[in-house]
Amino acid sequence: MSDPSDLPPGTAPADDTAANSMGTVPGATAAESSPDQSPQNPFAERIAALEAEIAQARDRWLRAEAETQNLRSRTQREVADARNYAIQKFAGDVVEAAQNLRRGIEALPAPRGDEDPLLVKLREGFEGVERSFLGMLERHGIQRQEAQGQPFDPALHQAMAEQPAPEGVAPGTVIQAWTPAWTLNGRLLKPAMVVVAAGGSASASAA
């Protein structure tokens, strides 16, 4: 560095700092010191927001699909029930007629070896009508469920009375059936009116 006293009069000494900074662009040093840093993605927040909206929309779609499936299943079940049980009231009247036919057959005299042939034909005719009638009912889903000798079932039987259990009969057994049970496509239409051997599960029902 030159001595300022050697300079010609009126000449200012050179500024070493300015000389050293010539050719340097302001801010270049800071930029060059971290060349690996990249500017923040201006679309990152928007992308994240769109992904969240897509997830919410998918969740809503899945819920709506599940509700639609449940509604479809429920509707199909209701339609099937309406089809299967639409004749329930009519079926109740029909089985009453079937029971009256059975009462008429049971009112005939017991078969004997010397009975009138006309009575034999009459009984056979009634029994044939009954078989045909019951077959027609079964084709429409109406079935007769015999109760005599069966264990008491509260889903099918209505206990009208209790009696001491006969010898060899387990308590809770149906020892007399006044009427059979009737079902329509597996659903109870009319319960059997029964007498039950005392000591079984029918005690509370008959009380």
TrEMBL record:
It is found in: Cytoplasm. Residues 1-11 have a biased composition (Pro residues). Residues 1-45 are annotated as: Disordered. One of its GO terms (biological process) is protein folding. It holds the Pfam family GrpE. GO terms for molecular function: adenyl-nucleotide exchange factor activity; protein homodimerization activity; protein-folding chaperone binding; unfolded protein binding. InterPro entries: GrpE (IPR000740), GrpE_CC (IPR013805), GrpE_head (IPR009012). Residues 31-41 have a biased composition (Polar residues). Keywords: Chaperone, Cytoplasm, Stress response. GO terms for cellular component: cytoplasm. Belongs to the GrpE family. Participates actively in the response to hyperosmotic and heat shock by preventing the aggregation of stress-denatured proteins, in association with DnaK and GrpE. It is the nucleotide exchange factor for DnaK and may function as a thermosensor. Unfolded proteins bind initially to DnaJ; upon interaction with the DnaJ-bound protein, DnaK hydrolyzes its bound ATP, resulting in the formation of a stable complex. GrpE releases ADP from DnaK; ATP binding to DnaK triggers the release of the substrate protein, thus completing the reaction cycle. Homodimer. This is Protein GrpE. It comes from Belnapia rosea. The gene is grpE.
